[in-house]
Amino acid sequence: MSDPILLVENVEKSFGALRALGPISVSLKAGERLGVIGPNGSGKTTLINCLTGTLTPSAGEVWFLGRKVTDLAPHRRARMGLARSFQIPKPFTGMSVLENLLVPLDHLHDVADPRARAMEVLASVGLAGRAGHEAGGLTQLELRKLELARALAGRPKVLIADEAMAGLSDREIDDVLAILERLNESGVAVIMIEHIMHAVMRFSHRIICLETGRLIADGLPDAIANDPLVQKVYFGEQARH
Ligand SMILES: Nc1ncnc2c1ncn2[C@@H]1O[C@H](COP(=O)(O)OP(=O)(O)OP(=O)(O)O)[C@@H](O)[C@H]1O
Ligand SMILES: [Mg+2]
């Protein structure tokens, strides 16, 4: 079945006089792995915020599972199965790792045994052994995994991972990629926003590239890597760092 599970139609978002995003149209199929790349400030997080409901678009529509969700609150979309992890992990630092999972599970109505579900999710990201530890004492890798676990608690149909590998070593990146691959193999569509090019190229079935809020390319990873416009705006920028 090829109907889109998630659809953005002519979405725009402005902050005062600055048009940060759009107009942009993007679709995601069930089970797909979509990479989102683009230079700093190109609108990637703004797009994700419009998808999840953190921001209301200035124009255009967002559809999820055949329902118009443009004005639906983030927690309602989350309950429908749209989950995201944040670019900057925001754990509850005074709580244990397990308690950090129980908080989002508390907001879901249909979890029979939240503690068992929390342990199951922690095990799926390799954090079961840290369940009793205080979240504030986690390493960068563990914080990234906890951020993913919190997003996965409600068994989403789509996971949006906003720079889930930033600041990690190559070995740690492999670790997170393996988690996302397993998750995708279990049927969850993944949108990966990422500056780490080898990771997003390896993971994605399809990649879109944004520049100043506009979609400048949409295609297979190989085609994106060789697209002259993408190379100019994105790889050219990376090369200067
Ligand atoms: N809440 C806001 N108020 C005003 N301007 C904003 C706001 N959020 C984002 N912007 C601006 O919108 C543009 C797009 O920002 P956005 O965070 O979406 O970029 P990004 O592609 O996610 O960048 P990065 O790769 O650095 O995370 C930038 O110019 C940014 O400064
Ligand atoms: Mg961003």
Describe the structure.
This protein has 241 residues and is an alpha/beta fold. It has a single domain, classed as Rossmann fold (3-Layer(aba) Sandwich). 38% of the residues lie in helices and 26% in strands. The strands form two sheets. It has a six-stranded mixed beta sheet, sandwiched between helices. It has a four-stranded antiparallel beta sheet with strand order 2-1-4-5, with helices on one face. Helix 3 (97-106) packs across helix 4. The longest helix is centred in the C-terminal third of the chain and has 16 residues, at 170-185. 41% of the residues are buried. Adenosine-5'-triphosphate (ATP) is lined by residues 15, 18, 20, 38, 40-46, 87.
